Amino acid sequence: MRDAITVGLLAIGSVFALLSAIGLVRFPDLFMRMQASTKATTLGIGCLMLAVAWHFGEIGVATRSLLVVLFVFLTAPAGAHMIARAAYVTGVPLWQGTLRDDLAGKYDIAHHELEGVAKPDEGANRD
Amino acid sequence: MTSELVRNASLAALGVLALAVLVAMVRLVKGPSLPDRVVAVDLVGMLAAGMIGVLSIYAGNGVYVDVAIVIALISFLATVAIARYIERREVR
After folding, report:
1. CB contact under 8 A, B24 and A61
2. Given the DSSP bridges, would you call strands A107-108 and A113-114 parallel, antiparallel or unpaired?
3. pLDDT in tens for each of the 127 residues of chain A?
4. Which chain B residues in 12-41 lie under 8 Å from chain A, judged by CB atoms?
5. Residue B49 confidence (pLDDT)
6. CATH number at residue B69
7. What is the residue range of A58's domain?
8. Which residues lie across from A114 on neighbouring strands?
């Protein structure tokens, strides 16, 4: 039973890691690729590290492997956000089938300001 | 301590992860823009951390998990640094 859970977690984790790599190659657009690589990899690494924690069953190893999970959960969205912003600012093209781009024309790339956010006279009479 | 079933399963998982690294390398070589390559490098780093975890199961030694922590940390730092670099380089 113990080994069965370890094997199951290993299978789920490695298959999700492979799926994220396939998504990274097959999606048409940087932002979609980032979606595949970030989310599926987070789940994959989480399952693999849970397998490590479960297999050893010691408090020291379990703490360190769960620390890896916590770290990946914290840093993967932050890193993906930074790459996505850098890519959008530098003009990486979106997929042709993209339906809407909410930032188009509203984001001042030179000064990193979003139009309509930093205007106190509009925000005053709204509340 | 490690049974034969778990050893074989971890070996298979290492194979699948190595295949994933190879597939990610396709995007690393092909990627049309620099952020594509950064995403691929980030994915390879995460996969390396996972491989180290599976390797610790295969070897039956929990010491290797420390290496996974360090790889995940350095991979994140590299990603953030390159993202800042891309943004600064183009704006100017």
Report:
1. no
2. antiparallel
3. 889 999 999 999 999 999 999 999 999 989 899 988 899 999 999 999 999 999 998 999 999 999 999 999 999 999 999 999 888 888 888 888 888 877 777 777 777 777 766 555 554 454 4
4. 12-13, 16-17, 19-21, 23-24, 26-27, 30, 33, 35-36, 38-40
5. 93
6. 1.10.287
7. 2-124
8. A107
Closest CA to B68 of B80, B81, B56: B56
The pair of structure tokens assigned to B40 is 């691929």
Q: How many domains does chain B have?
A: 1
For chain B, give the longest Cα–Cα distance: 58
**Chain B residue with minimum CA distance to A83:** B83
**Structural domain count of chain A:** 1
Model ipTM value: 0.89
- 3-class DSSP state for residue A99? coil
B83 and A CB contact within 8 Å: yes
What is the residue whose two structure tokens read 């916590």? A70
| Residue A105 buriedness (CB in 10 A; 0-12 / 13-18 / 19+) | exposed
CB A29 within 8 A of CB A61: no
B9 and A CB contact within 8 Å: yes
The confidence score (pLDDT) of residue A117 equals 60
Contacts of A33 in chain B (CB under 8 A): 27, 36, 39
A68·B68 Cβ contact <8 A: yes
Residue ranges, chain B, pLDDT below 70: 1, 90-92
